[in-house]
Write a structure and sequence with these properties.
Helix content: over 70%
Structural class: mainly alpha
CATH architecture of the largest domain: Orthogonal Bundle
Distance between the termini: 53 Å
Order of helices and strands: HHHHHHH
Shape: globular
């Protein structure tokens, strides 16, 4: 691995984690996705084409890993470690008033979106990719990205607005 790619990968970690968290809805699953993606990228570095965007390549690996994981879960069902099941309150005890409640509302609303809409929204709204870049990562036409974003934003607004009104 070249020093250049090593620096790029390290610098990209926060963005990879954000994206993985956004599509999986869980910090733990997101971290697992990033680890899986890094392992795959490092073992298949010869497949990376110089002159292309390294971040797009990594986002694509995360997206594909998530799809694979989702398929495995559908086939096998969710696996829970009984020893760890009751150890966490999922951060509820640490939440601070309104900001934490709104963040939780937005997270839940985002998790309620269909996977394809959630991925498009995360790449464009959270990661700041252009529509073209998101289309390349997701391997879909730009128009499809725009359509998914439009539907995702509209649905997110519907899901978040009632909670925001209730807090006022």
């Amino acid at each position: 691995m070249t020093d250049h790619l090593r620096r790029d990968l390290i610098g990209l970690m926060p963005r990879l984690r954000r994206f993985a968290y956004a599509i999986s809805g869980s910090m733990d699953k997101g971290d697992d996705l990033v680890q899986t993606a890094c392992e795959k990228a490092l073992s298949r570095l010869d497949q990376f084409q110089e002159g292309t965007r390294f971040d797009s390549w990594m986002f694509r690996i995360i997206q594909n890993s998530w799809i694979d994981e989702t398929r495995r879960t559908r086939t096998r069902g969710v696996q829970i470690d009984p020893e760890l099941a009751a150890l966490s309150d999922h951060g509820k005890g640490a939440r601070l008033a309104e900001d934490r409640m709104m963040l939780a509302t937005v997270r839940a609303a985002m998790a309620a979106l269909p996977e394809d809409q959630r991925a498009a929204l995360a790449l464009v709204a959270i990661e700041g990719l252009s529509y073209k870049e998101a289309a390349d990562v997701l391997d879909i036409p730009v128009g499809t990205v725009m359509s998914r974003l439009s539907r995702a934003r509209a649905r997110l607004a519907e899901l978040v607005r009632p909670a925001a009104r209730g807090a006022a």
